[in-house]
Amino acid sequence: MRVLVVYCHPVPESFCAALRDAAVETLTARGDEVRLVDLYAERFDPVMQPDERRLYNDGPPADPALKPYSDHLKWAEAVLFVYPTWWYGLPAMLKGFFDRVWATGVVFELAPKGGIVSRVGHIRRIGIVTTCGATRFLSILMGQPGRKTILRGIRALCGMRARTLYLAHYDMDRSTPESRMAFLAKVRGRLRKF
């Protein structure tokens, strides 16, 4: 399977980096072809400019810096997002990635009579590996907006019956070396079956 791993964390030595490495190693070991997008390392610009928004419905983004990301999405059969959950949602960098790359002419077309038509029906799996400072209970109470954005909103554009995966290390602010090692093992185990 062709798996695109989209990683979003500004700190190279973060626990999210360890999760990214575990994901890439596990997917590669099971024989998947893996491409890694590291939004911070690649200095992805998440800011949509006024003219970009004005032309958003007219076709693919004109910014040539976005083309490699569009090409990755055309290539991928699965997408795995690895990021920290901040304020119960996505980091701004990742949200900007969706705003700018998951765009008209890339992942969907506007239908003549309203609605949208997917261009990424070939993506059959979509997953999340994340950390949450809050507890599981508090995250659920707040509605888990990051999880819903990806596993409901983004998934709706993907292939019919696209399988999903959600793995979260909750209560990260009080994590221990043992809890982090256990979560890494869980991530490896679940990704072997992704």
CATH architecture: 3-Layer(aba) Sandwich
- Tell me the quaternary state: single chain
**How widely separated are the two ends?**
10 Å
Question: Which structural class is indicated by helix and strand composition?
Answer: alpha/beta
Overall number of structural domains: 1
Helix content: 25-40%
Instruction: Give the mean pLDDT.
Output: 95
Number of helices: 7
Textual characterization of the structure:
With 194 residues, this protein is α/β, with parallel strands linked by helices. The protein is 36% helix and 21% strand. It has 7 helices and 7 strands. The protein has helices at residues 15-29, 50-54, 67-75, 92-101, 136-141, 145-154, 177-191, and strands at 2-7, 33-38, 78-85, 108-110, 116-118, 125-132, 163-169. It has a 5-stranded parallel β-sheet, sandwiched between helices. Strands 4-5 form a two-stranded antiparallel sheet. Helix 1 runs parallel beside helix 7 (177-191). The longest helix has 15 residues, at 15-29.
Give the topology, please:
Elements: E1 2-7, H1 15-29, E2 33-38, H2 50-54, H3 67-75, E3 78-85, H4 92-101, E4 108-110, E5 116-118, E6 125-132, H5 136-141, H6 145-154, E7 163-169, H7 177-191
Parallel strand pairs: 1-2, 1-3, 3-6, 6-7
Antiparallel strand pairs: 4-5
Give a quick rundown of the structure:
By secondary structure, the protein is of the alpha/beta class. Helix content is 36%, strand content 21%. It starts with a strand and ends with a helix.
